[in-house]
């Protein structure tokens, strides 16, 4: 397509046929050029075992094609029909507590079930054979939101699949015993047949077993995707995707991203949360990074309120448009919604649609029309569509560390994503665009690389980080990094592994502060943990984490202040080869973290975007995207012309949720 994709999930099976023609007319009016069809249509396409009904879908796709609307055709495997569960109840998923999850919702299938996979493959084959050559076909949409509701299954079928996966990984049960450390608590296995999924147990479970089951579960979902994608590729050259869900813990999207032709994402920030614009920006940067910087597709967002939070705030006027341009600014070449026409029955009937219950004479539909008109007028000639998003700073993100650090029986309760977001917020506030990377990815092009709590790290990963610093990069390493190897065995002798030489420090002992809620037990408020030093702008609180850092060759940039850790290093700086390596042994508040980053970014000569309170700036190609997320009008002053209005961007006034696309002079 020559322009931006624009549209959403279309569920014509929920409506009588006379509505379909009106839908196409309204899509043309709204500028819609792509819709996702068939996502939850298995029961309609195959109402009985082996009996396929494509007549209705033929009519729908032909109508869309005649109206100039392209089709993202789903494989319909996301929600098996009730007849399949009745015929094969052994395919139903089971929780760790042994509870079977029954039909009546969606995703009621075990990812490892050969029965589910066989029936899914038959359905996909029939769909692909019928529509592979249809001229409306723009994209294949495999399944939907893999793992959203059933990411781990603990049934006997999954147990057998887990044993097969373990045997392929370890080869021998002796190797498994060594990796899992089964000498602890009499957990030694004499054969793979003795291994079970980590079902409900009396107390703490084997940490490496838990991690391997997380890895296995992500792989099993990906195997389901791969089986369908292979069928499609045997018959069609049309690109394939499946919709990711941002920072979704159960699926290692670094591995998944290698399987899709286009990265696509579902994103539902809470309009009531003031941090949502920044968190949404972080999610969009992840999507761009997963695809190696290539354009990606916002597959789902809501044009208004969702229906699944405790309180479902509506988007404020202009907010849907502003967040759409945020995605475009951060690399998206398409903006789609869930869903086209708001449902009148079922569990999502109160989830907003592009055509809401109130019809077309509504604020939502007018905003949908406005955005569609604007996107139709934008093209590659504007320097936006298909263009890269430059970044000089990267954050290391790692699913193994996320899975492991949040297990029970850890040093303290840590939320991995919260730590990552803290670094991201600091960089965003400093006017810096961020890529996400793997530790062994190509780091050479970045002036600064931040490593938040790489709790699980191989020697290769630690060596890659050391090489980055040694070759002239600026490396910032956060606490709880390099603690465990890939089997979750402790790196003894001061943790950190080879990063001890990189950083010039080692860690003698963890000393996380007492939780504030201990006061409820009558112990009074726990002592405040503070940090002082010029690197953090004077003084800072550090309530989440602290530790005893032994300084070898590094210089101390800030120390803990008060208590048993008084005077011990909290932030250090070390010259490593041609570069610099920082170690931050605590979680700094936003202000002190910003002060630290200011010094680091200046020293590393990182280019900065404008900084205006409440305004997000991001550069894509030759366009500087400016979005006012605040509730008040603001004035920006950058050289160039707003592509949307033709106005000069010098002294340009942006209202609440206002957007400017500045072609810089």
Question: Topology of this protein?
Answer:
Blueprint: E1 5-10, H1 17-30, E2 34-37, H2 42-45, H3 55-66, E3 70-74, H4 82-87, H5 114-131, E4 137-141, H6 156-170, H7 173-180, H8 207-233, E5 240-241, E6 243-244, H9 253-256, E7 264-266, H10 276-290, E8 296-300, H11 319-329, E9 332-337, H12 363-377, E10 393-396, H13 399-405, H14 416-429, E11 434-437, E12 448-451, H15 459-470, E13 474-478, H16 499-503, E14 505-510, E15 530-533, E16 538-541, E17 547-551, E18 555-561, E19 569-576, E20 579-584, H17 590-603, E21 615-620, E22 623-628, E23 634-642, E24 648-654, E25 659-664
Parallel strand pairs: 1-2, 1-9, 2-3, 3-4, 4-5, 6-7, 7-8, 8-9, 10-11, 10-12, 12-13, 13-20
Antiparallel strand pairs: 14-17, 15-16, 15-18, 18-19, 19-20, 21-22, 22-25, 23-24, 23-25
Helix pairs in contact: 1-3, 5-8, 14-17
């Amino acid at each position: 397509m020559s322009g931006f994709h624009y549209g959403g999930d279309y569920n014509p099976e929920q409506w009588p046929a006379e509505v379909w023609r009106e839908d196409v007319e309204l899509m043309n009016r709204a500028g819609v050029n792509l819709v996702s069809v068939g996502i939850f249509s298995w029961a309609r396409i195959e109402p009985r075992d082996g009996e396929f009904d494509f007549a209705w879908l033929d009519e729908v796709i032909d109508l869309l094609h005649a109206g100039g609307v392209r089709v993202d055709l789903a494989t319909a495997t996301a929600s098996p029909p009730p007849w399949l569960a009745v015929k094969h109840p052994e395919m139903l998923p089971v929780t760790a507590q042994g509870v079977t999850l029954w039909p009546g919702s969606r995703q009621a299938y075990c990812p490892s079930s050969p029965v589910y996979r066989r029936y899914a493959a038959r359905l996909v084959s029939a769909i692909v054979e019928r529509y592979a050559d249809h001229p409306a076909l723009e994209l294949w949409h495999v399944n939907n939101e893999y793992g959203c509701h059933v990411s781990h299954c603990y049934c006997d079928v999954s147990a057998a699949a887990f044993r097969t996966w373990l045997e392929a990984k370890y080869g021998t049960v002796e190797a498994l015993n060594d990796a899992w450390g089964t000498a602890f608590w009499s957990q030694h296995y004499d054969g793979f047949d003795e291994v079970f999924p980590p079902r409900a147990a009396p107390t703490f479970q084997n940490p490496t077993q838990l991690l391997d089951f997380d890895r296995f579960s992500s792989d099993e979902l990906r195997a389901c995707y791969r089986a369908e994608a292979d069928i499609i590729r045997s018959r069609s050259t049309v690109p394939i995707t499946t919709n990711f869900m941002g920072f979704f813990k159960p699926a290692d999207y670094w591995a998944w991203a290698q399987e899709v032709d286009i990265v696509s994402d579902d994103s539902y920030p809470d309009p009531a949360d003031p941090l949502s614009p920044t968190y949404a920006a972080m999610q969009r940067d992840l999507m761009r990074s997963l695809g190696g910087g290539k354009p990606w597709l916002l597959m789902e967002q809501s044009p208004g309120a969702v229906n699944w939070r405790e309180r479902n705030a509506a988007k404020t006027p202009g907010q849907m448009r502003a967040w759409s341009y945020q995605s475009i600014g951060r690399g998206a070449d398409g903006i789609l919604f869930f869903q086209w026409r708001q449902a009148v029955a079922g569990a999502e009937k109160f989830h907003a649609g592009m055509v809401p219950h109130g019809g077309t004479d509504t604020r939502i539909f007018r905003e949908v029309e406005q955005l569609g008109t604007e996107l139709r007028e934008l093209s590659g000639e504007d320097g936006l569509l298909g263009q890269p998003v430059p970044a000089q700073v990267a954050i290391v993100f790692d699913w193994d560390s996320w899975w492991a650090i949040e297990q029970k029986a850890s040093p303290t309760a840590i939320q991995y994503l919260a730590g990552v977001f803290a670094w991201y917020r600091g960089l965003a506030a400093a006017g810096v665009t961020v890529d996400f990377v793997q530790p062994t990815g190509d780091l050479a092009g970045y002036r600064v690389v931040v490593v938040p709590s790489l709790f699980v790290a191989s020697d290769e990963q630690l060596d890659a980080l050391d090489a980055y610093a040694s070759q002239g990069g600026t490396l910032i390493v956060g606490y709880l990094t390099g603690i465990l190897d890939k089997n979750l065995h402790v790196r003894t002798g001061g943790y950190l592994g080879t990063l001890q030489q990189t950083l010039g420090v080692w860690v003698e002992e963890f000393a996380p502060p007492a939780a504030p809620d201990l006061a409820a037990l009558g112990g009074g408020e726990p002592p405040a943990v503070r940090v002082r030093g010029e690197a953090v702008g004077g003084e800072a609180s550090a309530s989440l984490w602290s530790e005893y850092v032994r300084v070898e060759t590094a210089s101390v940039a800030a120390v803990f202040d008060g208590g048993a850790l008084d005077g011990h290093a909290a932030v250090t700086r070390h010259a490593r080869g041609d570069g610099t390596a920082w170690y931050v042994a605590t979680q700094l508040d936003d202000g002190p973290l910003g002060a630290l980053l200011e010094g680091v970014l200046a020293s590393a000569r990182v280019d900065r975007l404008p900084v205006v309170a409440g305004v997000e700036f991001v550069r894509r190609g030759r366009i500087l995207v400016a979005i006012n997320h605040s509730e008040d009008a603001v004035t920006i002053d950058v050289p160039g012309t707003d592509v949307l209005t033709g106005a000069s961007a010098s002294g340009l006034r942006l209202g609440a949720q206002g957007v400017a696309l500045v072609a810089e002079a």
